[in-house]
Amino acid sequence: MTFKKMTVVLLACVALSACGGVDPNSPLGQRKAIFKQMLKTSEDLGGMLRGRIPFDGAQFAEGATRLDALSHQPWQHFPSVREDDHTSAKDDVWQKQAQFQQLARNLEAATGELVIAGRVQPYKAANLMPAVQKVEDACSACHKQFRDH
């Protein structure tokens, strides 16, 4: 292949890769990144309690603290007016802001309670499950109302 043809192919690949992606610096890109981190962290915590991952109390406590910090971050990346890009958020996020913000505060409160539960020693999975369930319920409540699956 000649240099000219290779350059054209390379430029086409670069141009195509730029299409359809989410700008990581956009509000959508920022909140998606945070939500992915939250999901990974909460899956690890739930996995420890459900036996999919070996339980480690110290790691659980660290994960609870990380999840609590993350739970306060995505809300700032919801602009006051809906973006035109492809978001999983329903229009209700912008039309029912007070309710959306209340569910966000509920999640923050639940993750705060999880941090407290994660500090109680000796670590026992049975003592941590109600706090994890409360976090999962808070996530689910918001998704049911405000996320377009």
UniProtKB/TrEMBL annotation:
Pfam family, one: Cytochrom_C_2
Signal peptide: 1-20
Keyword match Iron: yes
GO biological process terms on file: electron transport chain
Protein name listed in UniProt: Cytochrome c
Entry binding sites for heme c: 139, 142-143
Any one Gene Ontology cellular component term annotated for this protein: periplasmic space
Organism: Pseudomonas lactucae
Description of post-translational modifications: Binds 1 heme group per subunit.
InterPro entries: Cyt_c/b562, Cyt_c_II, Cyt_c_prime
Source superkingdom: Bacteria
Entry keyword set: Electron transport, Heme, Iron, Metal-binding, Signal, Transport
PROSITE patterns per record: CYTCII, PROKAR_LIPOPROTEIN
GO molecular function term, any single one: iron ion binding
